[in-house]
Amino acid sequence: MNPGPASLPYWMQVFAFVASGLLAVLTIIGIIIQLTKKPTLKFRLTREIFFRLTDSFAEAIFSNGVLVSENRGIFIDDISFKLNKVNNPKKSFVLRCAFFGEKVRGLFPISDFNWFSTSPLTYVPLVIPQRVSYLLVQQAYEESMKKAFIDFRTKILEAHRIFRDTPPPLEQEQKDLKSKELFEKVMFIVNDYMGKIMELVQIEGGDYELEAEIFYWIKKFIFFKKQQSSISKIAFKIDAKVKDTLRADLMLMLQTISSNLILSENRPIKSPEYFPIEIREL
Around 21, how many Cα atoms within 13 Å sit in the side-chain half-sphere? Predict the structure, then answer.
C-alpha cells in the first residue's frame, strides 16, 4: 500500500506549499510585466523599389516594407507616403497608397504581386515579421494621366471608325493610300499623346528620399489608448536620362495599344519601367 500525502514529512509539505506559492506569485508578476510593457512596431522600407507608367494607375511607385511588433500584437490604423527630391531644385510629392499586397512567385524570375486590399487597416502578430508591398501613385497627377490614356484610346477608336465607315476604294493603289492615311493618323495621335502623358510624368534625374509613416494604437491603461507612429526612409538616385528611357518605352506601349484596338488583338502591353540606382536604407 502506497503512503498517502499525509505520510510526507512535515518539512516537505511546507516546502511544496511555499514553492507552489512562489510559482504563482512569479507567474502573476510575469503577466503584469508583460501587460505593462509598451508595445512597439519596427518598420523598415526595403531597397526593392521601381517606377512604372500604366493606364490604370498612372505614374506608380512599387515599394516594399517589413513590419515586426514587439511585446504585443499591433493594430495598424493608417500609413502615409511622401517622395522628396533632396537636391536642387527641391520638390516634394504626396503619394497615395492605392493598393496593399504581397510578393508572389510569377512566371518570370522576378516576383509578381498579389494586391489584396485598398485599406491600410491590418494586424501585425507578435514577433511574426510581415512583408508588405505598396502600390503608390502621384496623388496630384493621377487623374490627369488616367484621363490622357482614356482620351488616347478614344482618339484611336474614332480614327479607326472613320476609316472603317468610309467606302473602300476599288483600285489597289487607292486602298494602299487609304491604309497609309490611317497609319499616319494613328502615329500622329501616338506622338501627340506621348507628349501629353510625358508632360505629366514627375520623375526626373536627381537624388530622392521616400518616406513612409505608419500610425498605430497602443493601450496605456484599460480604457485609454494612444496613437503612435513609426517612420522609415530610403534614399536613391534617378538617372538624368530617365525621361528619354520612359519616352521610348511609352511610344512602344501606345503603339501596342493602338494595334490591339484596330486589329482586335490582345497582344501583351509592356508598361514603361525604371529602376532607381544607389538605393540606401536610412
Answer: 6
